[in-house]
Structures are given as structure tokens and as C-alpha cells.
Amino acid sequence: xxxxxxxxxxxAIVLVVxxxxxxxxxxxxxxxxxxxxxxxxxxxAPSVNRFLTSLADTINQIKL
Length: 64
Hints:
mainly alpha
């Protein structure tokens, strides 16, 4: 849950910055948000969640 919330907050910040810098228009941003919303209600959602969790775990294990 913490990872999901962190990703949502991070993506929201990136989205706001992109809209304010005019590198992303409002229309495509709405389409992308709706795509994510409807993707979350499909059978593919658990696979996407597992992939993002494993990606976060992999990044977490990198030692500099």
C-alpha cells in the first residue's frame, strides 16, 4: 500500500509539472488518467501491480 500511494503521489507531481511547463496538454493528460483508471479495473491490474512491486524491490536492492 505504501508503494502504491508513493507512486500515485510521484506520478501526480510529475503530471502537474508537465502540464504547468506545457510539455503535456490537458487533453492527453485526461486521456492518460482515464486509461490508467480503466486499466486498474481489468484483469491485467494484478500483473501491472506485481511488475511495479518487483521493479521497486529491484531498485531498492541497488547499493551505491
